[in-house]
Amino acid sequence: NMPVVEIAGYEADDLIGTLAVKAAKDGFECYIVSPDKDLGQVAGENIYIHKPPFMGKPAEVLGVAELNKKWEIKNPKEIIDILGLWGDAVDNIPGIKGVGEKTAPKFLAEYGSLENTLANADKIKGAMGKKVQEGKEMAILSKKLATIILDVPVEFHEEDFKLSEWNKEMLSEIFAELEFKTLGKRLLGDSFTIATT
Fold first, then answer.
1. Could you count the other beta carbons within 10 Å of the beta carbon of residue 17?
2. How far is it, in rounded angstroms, from Cα 95 to Cα 76?
3. Which of 72, 104, 137, 175 is the most core-located residue (most Cβ within 10 A)?
4. Which three-class secondary structure state does DSSP give residue 184?
5. pLDDT of 34
6. Rounded CA separation 28/3 (Å)
7. 8 Å CB contact between 43 and 31
8. Rg for the chain, CA atoms, rounded
9. Which spans in 31-154 are helix H?
10. Which residues contact 141 (CB under 8 A, 6 or more apart)?
11. Is 187 within 8 Å of 56 (Cβ atoms)?
12. 61: part of which helix (H) or strand (E)?
């Protein structure tokens, strides 16, 4: 009984971003739970990014100020420019080979955008200038890949997202079929067992 939203032709991030923006406009405080870097661009008034704990690092809740500080930017929307330059291997965003997490914010601070960085590539000295010149097409593609669509044709209605009681009988069947013994006990209680044949 968990609400699910799917629209053909759109990625989950696009739906998440669009619904968060619409819910925030309706006065809801939204927390996008994801480790993905690109979702940071959606942060704004009443929209926060909740990064789950990972590899010993604690969970983080990031609003606009925290994201700006973390990425060394002025606005979370600039994250797409950073990812266009730097890339993100986790999300298959290539970026410009050789431009890293320290260089990308410097370019953005100096030139203001990915496009202006590319337009001024001939002014960047040494090997890095050559890398930027050679990586122009990849940078533009990367920015496009990193950009979350925020006008997906989906409506936000609060009642559609209310959780109802679990269908314990169906959960029990699924957990038994998948042999999720520990999860079954945690969610359904110690009486949950998997029949052996």
1. 24
2. 18
3. 104
4. helix
5. 96
6. 18
7. no
8. 21
9. 64-71, 79-86, 103-111, 114-119, 126-134, 136-146
10. 94
11. no
12. strand 60-62
Tokens of 164: 């109802």
Element (H, E) at 148: none
State the first-to-last Cα distance of the chain, in angstroms, to the nearest integer: 30
The pLDDT value recorded for residue 195 is 77
Closest Cα to residue 61, out of 72, 46, 78, 73? 46
- What type of residue is 121? A
Q: How far apart are CA 122 and CA 132, in angstroms?
A: 9
Task: Please state, in angstroms and as integers, the Cα–Cα distance from residue 107 to each residue in 78, 135, 179, 182, following that order.
Answer: 12, 14, 51, 49
Closest CA to 147 of 79, 194, 95, 197: 79
Parallel, antiparallel, or unpaired: how do β-strands 47-51 and 60-62 relate? antiparallel
The residue to which tokens 């950009």 are assigned: 147
Per-residue pLDDT of the chain (197 residues; tens, 9 = 90+): 888 999 999 999 999 999 999 999 999 999 999 999 999 999 999 999 999 999 999 999 999 999 999 999 999 999 999 999 999 998 899 999 999 989 999 999 999 999 999 999 999 999 999 999 999 999 999 999 999 999 999 999 999 998 889 899 999 999 999 999 999 999 999 989 887 76
Between strands 47-51 and 30-33, the pairing is parallel
